[in-house]
Design goal:
Length: 293
């Protein structure tokens, strides 16, 4: 069933449709444009078309074949497991699950090889995945083994009862020993790959930090997040003028990797009802980085 919209002046066609069709991914919308499933004033158009305002836009959605995670015999580091939960140590550079442009080599591909059963609430492409870490962030990630465990963990995340502690090296001299950032986070309208805390509107986000050590050009932080927004720590620290070391997307000088590590996570196991705390040691390359400052 087609959907109809009226164009807004000054917006690219693909950006406008992303704002209107929030339940669909950017890649799916762009594929419809390429397949001529999007008509502007009755004619096919390019993603880059700049709208003048008032155009009649018609979209005829079509389902894409679902991505299915294929088992791959690749290494995985288990930090903790019980009947309901697996906690893994994700290395930097590893994508959590398949998406646009990547269907293999992900953490999920490894998980489905090593474990017979995982929660199916995330669908065929995201079995067991309750939360995510950025590709370039290392550290602890929880995986649900059953649908019931998935629901229980998701409830803990949404209820903000999961303890999430990160270690981050940021650029510059952070003045205060402790701090709390509550700026809302939204998609950056100028660069869609980024998030921003510069707009008044956005999703609520809470980040707390404590200084562990200072150098002339860097500050080492312990960071706790009460919410789980996309790029939350990266955006919030950059908003203070202290981007995470190596985070070129948010204004930091280039480095071998992003210095952001999900160090500790605390949750109640759905299997035992007991509080569990799992830690992932700081990766060797980050320890070497600190030692060389």
């Amino acid at each position: 069933m087609s959907e109809r919209f009226t164009g807004e002046a000054g917006k690219r066609l693909d950006h406008f449709l992303q704002e209107q069709l929030t339940r669909y991914s950017r890649s799916r919308i762009q594929s419809w444009i390429k397949e001529n499933r999007v008509l502007v004033e009755g004619a096919p158009a390019k993603s880059s078309l700049m709208l003048r305002g008032g155009e009649a836009i018609e979209v005829s959605p079509a389902d894409l074949p679902p991505l299915k995670a294929i088992a791959e015999d690749l290494p995985i580091e288990i930090l903790y497991q019980d009947a309901a939960v697996i906690a893994v140590n994700k290395p930097a550079g590893l994508t959590v699950h398949a998406g646009a442009g990547q269907h293999d080599g992900t953490l999920v591909n490894r998980l489905v090889h090593h474990f017979q059963g995982l929660s199916q609430l995330g669908g065929d492409e995201r079995p067991g995945i309750v939360h995510r870490l950025d590709k370039d962030t290392s550290g602890v990630l929880l995986v649900a083994r059953t649908d019931a465990a998935h629901r229980a963990l998701a409830s803990q995340f949404s209820g903000r009862t999961v303890e999430k502690v990160y270690l981050a090296l940021v650029n510059g001299h952070v003045k205060d020993d402790t701090g709390r950032i509550t700026k809302p986070i939204s998609r950056d309208p100028a660069r869609r790959v980024r998030m921003t805390a510069r707009l008044a509107a956005g999703r609520d986000a809470i980040t707390e930090y404590r200084v562990r050590q200072r150098w002339e050009k860097f500050t080492f932080l312990e960071v706790r997040i009460k919410t789980g927004r996309t790029h939350q720590i990266r955006v919030h620290m950059a908003s203070l003028g202290h981007p995470v070391a190596g985070d070129r997307l948010y204004g930091a000088p280039p480095a071998d990797r992003l210095f952001l590590h999900a160090w500790k996570i605390g949750f109640t196991s759905p299997a035992t009802g007991k509080l569990v705390t799992v830690e992932a040691p700081l990766p060797s390359e980050l320890s070497v980085w600190l030692a060389g400052i």
